[in-house]
Amino acid sequence: MVRDPSKARLGREEPRIWTPPLRPLTPSTSLGFAAIEFATEVLGIELYPWQRWLLIHALELLEDGSFRFRKIVVLVARQNGKSTLSQVLSLFCLYVLGIGLVLGTAQDLDTAEEVWDGALELIEGNEELSALAAPPIKVNGKKTIRLKTGERYKVKAAGRRSGRGLSGDLILLDELREHQTWEAWGAITKDLANSTPILRADGTWTTIGEVRVGDRVFAPSGAPVPVTAVHPITRLRPMYRVITTDGRSVLASASHLWTVKDTRRSYDLASGWETLTTRQILDRGLRRKGTEWVFRLPRQHALADLPARDLPIDPYVLGCWLGDGTTDDGTVTVGAVDLDVTCDLLTRAGATVTSRIETRPGTWRVRLHAGGRPLRVVLRETGLLGHKHVPEEYLSASVDQRLSLLRGLLDTDGCVTGAGLAKFTTTRECLADAVLFLARSLGWSARKSQFVPRFDGRACGVGWNVTFTVREGEPVPFGLPRKAAGCAEAASAGQWLHASIASIEPVESEPSTCIAVDSDDHLFLAGRDLIPTHNTTMARPNAQIWALSNAGDASSIVLRYLRKMAHLALGDPDDINANDDPSRLLDDDAGDNAEVDLDDDSLGIFEWSAPPGCSVKDRDGWAMANPSLGYAIPEKTLASDAHSDPEWTFRTECLCQWSDGTLEGPFPAGAWDAGVDGPCKRPKDCDRCDQHEPGYGGSVIAVDSPVGIGLSVAWDRSRASIGAAGLRPDELPHVEVIATRAGTDWVVDWFTDPKHPHRKDYRVAIQPSSPAGSLIDDLEEAGITVVGWKGPDLPQSHGRFYDAVKEHRLRHRPQAILDVAAATAVPKTLGGDAWVWDLRKSPVDISGLVACTGALWLSSIPVEEADPFFAFG
Fold first, then answer.
1. DSSP letters spanning 586-605
2. Among residues 779, 778, 744, which one has the least CA distance to residue 764?
3. Are strands 827-831 and 763-766 parallel, antiparallel or unpaired?
4. Would you call the peptide bond into 679 cis, given omega within 30 degrees of 0 as the criterion?
5. Residues 504 and 241 sit within 8 Å (Cβ to Cβ)
6. Which of 44, 103, 233, 717 could be bridged to 512 by S-S, CB 3.0 to 4.6 A?
7. How far apart are alpha carbons 554 and 365 in whole angstroms?
8. In what order do the strands lie in the sheet with 414-416?
9. How far apart are CA 269 and CA 498, in angstroms?
10. What pLDDT score was predicted for residue 72?
């Protein structure tokens, strides 16, 4: 069909590539119709056809009324109205849907603020909307729109250092093409190991992997809060054991969120709280000096709403027997000084004292009945006779019942120390663990320690102490008056009420789960240690992330992955996954919400772009990528840009087409990507590959090649990377990053890992004046050979590395950490034409690229024959 030249060319309403709906879209199956009506009738905005189409499709509802899409990728050329769309969507969610928090974010804060400013102008220019709004916050660089009913719209940068805590019900990620690492995205989700115990409000225990929507768990305040959604994690992610100063511990992922107070900045308990990921806490450092810990956790209060239990033995009576009772009989041993008072307390607790026998001077044995029957009989029926322990039903009983049990245990085996601490001592660890939990469940920051009991100077097994501070105004954990009085006198002494994070150690990965709870602070208690921790954003039933952008390039890691997975789900219409595995773009910072399951249809893509191979002069291609063409964008504007812009600038920004290489960077366009070699991702369809054998595993160093190892550390010491280099069987040089992790504490252990003894034979190139130079002494002390990379070797080796890339001689496997660094690294001039990579001024971490540059240099230096290197050894 020939277009009528008398009519203006209009942009395409429907995107070229998009995720189809599950059912016909009507006002009952999509909230997009309501959003359009809100824009027209309330805001007075007539949306463009493509904006209306997108709202209808992106706000599709499932049969249960929740949003179908959790992640929405919108790709459209620049200047087509993404900002107006974001403003309408944000205000619709605030005013009509009443969602708690809209968060606008972009790599450049100015971009997010521009959308926020426009939304505020719409409110202030509308009498109806402004009447419902509270005064906005615009102080100290913070901007928040607030409604009188509590809803908020905030903006936050998503840069490398400010991407933490991206938690909201609607998250708008603008210009996602600029996200060259997963750090900001990874902050969106947070998860705990599936095995983590969770106490429900009915007193029963489950694990976070078994938690269901509607379950009630506990907040740090001690109040029950409902679970609003659950988000299982399908991919094993790096896990850490987080341990607090009072001995609590839990397994959490690197991207799990914590609400903490950095005591280097504020000691005020009422302010200064912030939300950080596990990795961000680790990167900042846990200790200020000596044993002064940095990150304080919120206080955990008493679990007040657990139900009262119908218990076979009164808790105080059971506590006394557990502490000083005869293991295989229903008697309790009591000292003469406390005999009358103890018998009175036992009687008031419902027990009957049937006999009191003095077994030796000052020591009495008291025989008891409970519920009208011999205590010995009841103990046998409950499985306690001969097996002292605290039954689970006592630990999850009411506050009064748990306090009575604790008093019985402390009256018999407890005391008040000279330092004012309440202390329980036992040689049974199960009793120590029970007292530890009881104290914590009643709001005390208790800790357990081990000691060696001695009798007549000889060691007698192992014992445990449980200690905690009782402050003025709190319940007294003793029933005996003399002990209670001592506790009251010391009520102002002792430990902090707030535990701090003492260590974060990597552990073996296991499946994990995110949950969301309905509480203002988004916190809940995890584990039997009752650790206050943060919930997730994306487990919220109606949470959505909108990623809006024009096309990116090889450095656009996050957007590339989401686009590739969305295309795969649609049958790969542009063949962008032919010889590429999208999962290689994921790394430890990605967070567990990043991975896309092809069987999960909660990722939607709506891509307005010109088709592959389209000429820059193809005006029909302009219409496909610019849906506002003829409405807001004159055709002559695009014609001018096509004439004046560099080709790939026009293709990316105006045709929304992707560059296979990088549009900017230190190497000539396409040079780095020309060196990518494998592995083959189409082993069953390898007739499409003309450079390797079917099932090819990818570039690798030859077994008999000399191998160089390089070590580099990011300028802020947030990450260390180890690179390897050598010659392939075809004698072309090969480089790869063989290890990269947060921080530097792991480096020496990696080289000396007994499971990989060949690593101790590596020679490692390190620049002494760089951040990695601080590790030289530790490595040499561990027996690792370090070669100083310095002097004229530095600029010469950088030049040779550059030449190898430029001349398409260097080979490497696709690795996100290396690809992004090669796309964005900034050189630093040393004088004349000499230069090196600039760790500090580069926009992302380039430690992997620096490590590989050093490794390639070291591999070219003749050395005695060493053990062969195996990739990823």
1. --GGG-TTS---TT---EEE
2. 779
3. unpaired
4. yes
5. yes
6. 233
7. 80
8. 414-416, 421-426, 463-469, 447-451
9. 9
10. 92
Taking only the tens place, the pLDDT of each residue in 272-314 is: 788 887 877 887 788 765 567 888 899 889 998 899 999 999 9
Residues with Cβ < 8 Å from 799, sequence gap 6 or more?
Answer: 835
Nearest in space to 734 (alpha carbons), one of 837, 679, 809: 809
Judging by DSSP bridges, how do beta strands 708-713 and 763-766 pair with one another? Answer: parallel
Write phi, then psi, for 415 (nearest 5 degrees). Answer: -160, 175
- Which residue, among 380, 379, 390, 460, has the nearest Cα to 430 in the 3D structure? 390
Q: Which residues contact 225 (CB under 8 A, 6 or more apart)?
A: 216, 217, 218, 219, 517, 518, 519, 524
Contact criterion met (CB below 8 Å) for 566 and 336: no
Report d(CA 753, CA 16) in Å as an integer: 52
pLDDT value of position 381? 93
CA distance 186 to 150: 27
Residue 514 identity: C
The pLDDT value recorded for residue 421 is 86
Q: Which helix (H) or strand (E) holds 569?
A: helix 557-569
- In whole angstroms, what is the distance from residue 185 CA to residue 628 CA? 29
Residue 682, pLDDT score: 42
How many Cα atoms occupy the beta-carbon half-sphere of 858 within 13 Å? 28
Alpha helix (H) residue ranges in 59-148? 82-92, 109-124, 127-131
Quote the pTM value.
0.57
Contact (Cβ atoms closer than 8 angstroms) between residue 483 and residue 165:
no
Residue 723's φ and ψ, nearest 5 degrees, are -110, 155
Structure tokens at 15: 């995107």
List, for residues 783-826, the tens digit of each pLDDT value: 999 999 999 999 999 999 999 999 999 998 888 788 888 888 88
Q: Tokens representing 500?
A: 């701090």
- Contact present, 561 and 586 (Cβ < 8 Å): yes
Question: Could you identify the residue written with the tokens 């768990």?
Answer: 217
Q: Give the alpha-carbon dihedral of 633, 635, 640, 642, to 10 degrees.
A: 100
Q: What pLDDT is stored for residue 537 in this prediction? A: 52
Q: Show the DSSP H helices in 710-868 as ranges.
A: 747-751, 776-781, 793-806, 816-824, 847-859
Please state, in angstroms and rounded to a whole number, the distance separating the CA atoms of residues 567 and 130.
42
Q: Which residue has the tokens 């095995």?
A: 195
**CA gap 726, 700 in Å, rounded:** 9
